[in-house]
Amino acid sequence: MNKLIQGDLKESSHQELNLIQSMYPDQFQWIQEPIQSANLPQSSSFRLTLESSDSNGQEYTLQITFTISVDYPQLAHPNLAISSNHLTRVDQIQFNEDFKAWISSNSNDRPPIGESCLDILIDKVIDLSHNFTCLSDLNPKNLSCIQSQSVAQTLSLDHLDMAWSVFWMHHIMATGKRKNIISWARELNIRGWSKPGYPGVLIIDGPAKAIEEYSSRLKSLRWKAIQQRHLEYYSIPYNRNSSSELELHRKIKLDVNLEPGIDMAILEVETMSELLRQAKNSGLENLVLEILKIK
């Protein structure tokens, strides 16, 4: 590329960045500003913090991190990473994968390489953001009909019928399965921990009928290998006026140390040691070790 064309492209990119800054003055933040030197090509990066709405119309905040190489726009699109404390980790992964699938496709609305496109990319991210459900929609006041039925079916006059279970899988890798593991737990008022990778481990606790329904759905998916290593039914005293008393009897305790915005249904952990740390906090470490035949 000759220096004249290269200079024109740099000027065009610089003007586009100025335009984005003027459009989002309070939402724009430089991470690495472009170096204004023709002899020193340098990528630049910035972050936009925007408000959007989820599939239920609930507003939430998301961040888009742009990395613009010296090849933009002539030879490459900008790289984008999308994140939000209001989405589960699995949803954030799916969000980024959906965007990558679109930018790599032959879709008519995808901007061609060679054209300035930051505004188009921002609009696409906002469009995709409507496909997800933010965590603030998932509080107990918004229980689904299925979830409410699960609780009602396990409620006797003076106690709740509960269950907890441990699953071992050859692996948990597919994004779709990881998403199902979390979304089904939200739906059925189930809590627990999931360790993706090799091997996969899932530990769940909730109303007995909900655990049975969840387990049935889980087993219906295609797995290289899956074993339900443990299923135990138990009951807890029911006091309509004391949720703290109910919590005392749950097998899996809520982690009070979780950062705000972390999903309280199924918590994904990266390692077996982190899974065992969570189990220890609920007094289940030795039992989980025995069930998984680790010792």
Give structural notes.
This protein is α+β, with helices and mostly antiparallel strands and 295 residues long. It has two domains: 127 residues, Ubiquitin Conjugating Enzyme, CATH 3.10.110; 153 residues, Alpha-Beta Plaits (2-Layer Sandwich), CATH 3.30.70.100. Helix content is 37%, strand content 23%. The protein has a five-stranded mixed beta sheet. The longest helix is centred in the first third of the chain and has 21 residues. The chain is elongated.
Features:
9 helices; alpha+beta; 5-stranded mixed beta sheet; elongated; 2 domains; Alpha-Beta Plaits; 295 residues
Q: Determine the strand fraction and express it as a percent band.
A: 15-25%
Q: Any idea of the CATH topology of the largest domain?
A: Alpha-Beta Plaits
Q: Architecture of the largest domain in CATH?
A: 2-Layer Sandwich
Strand order of the largest sheet: 8-5-7-6-9
Mean pLDDT: 80
Helix content: 25-40%
Present the secondary structure layout.
Blueprint: H1 3-23, E1 28-32, E2 44-53, E3 59-68, E4 79-83, H2 89-103, H3 118-129, H4 145-153, E5 159-169, H5 175-188, E6 191-195, E7 200-207, H6 208-220, E8 226-237, H7 243-249, E9 266-268, H8 272-281, H9 285-291
Parallel strand pairs: 6-9
Antiparallel strand pairs: 1-2, 2-3, 3-4, 5-7, 5-8, 6-7
Helix pairs in contact: 2-5, 5-6, 8-9
